Amino acid sequence: QVQLQESGPGLVKPSQTLSLTCTISGDSTKSNSFYWSWIRQAPGKGLEWIGYIIGGEDTYYNPSLKSRASISRDTSKMQFTLQLNSATPEDTAVYYCNAWGVYWGQGTQVTVSS
User: Fold this and answer.
1) 6 and 97 Cβ atoms separated by less than 8 Å
2) Which of 7, 15, 30, 95 has its CA 20 to 30 A from that of 84?
3) Confidence grade of residue 29 (pLDDT, cut at 50, 70, 90)
4) What Cα–Cα distance (Å) separates residue 36 from each residue in 45, 64, 107?
């Protein structure tokens, strides 16, 4: 069994950096295979893929967020992080982390507001 848990501030001010961490625990047999993603869902909208990190340090981003998003990982802690610069109210959403396309965190609400 694999568990994912998102953590980070629930409230971010406009223009600041939105930063979230996903911690993976449980079955460690996949620990040498990295395919970890961030997805979000804004109020009243569908799921939006933000990006993922795979293999060594290869990262891929939604073109609409590429200029502001950064995903990194710390394999020693089985964690990966999302940073989204210059946050705007349009970044208000429930943010999910996903591992290997199969396992999901429960999601964390992030509100961008002054």
Assistant:
1) yes
2) 30
3) low
4) 22, 19, 15
CA separation, residue 96 to residues 20, 40, 106, 110 (Å)? 10, 6, 7, 11
Complete DSSP assignment for 22-45? EEEEE--TTTT--EEEEEEE-TTS
Joined together, the tokens standing for residue 44 give: 């009243």
Rounded Cα gap, residues 64 and 4, in angstroms: 26
Structure tokens at 1: 């069994």
CA distance linking residue 36 with residue 86, whole number of Å: 23
Contacts of 96 (CB under 8 A, 6+ apart): 6, 38, 39, 40, 41, 47, 104, 105, 107
- How many residues in the chain? 114
Query: What average pLDDT does this structure show over 51-56?
Result: 88
Q: Which residues contact 108 (CB under 8 A, 6 or more apart)?
A: 6, 7, 8, 10, 20, 94, 95
Which run of H or of E encompasses 11? strand 11-12
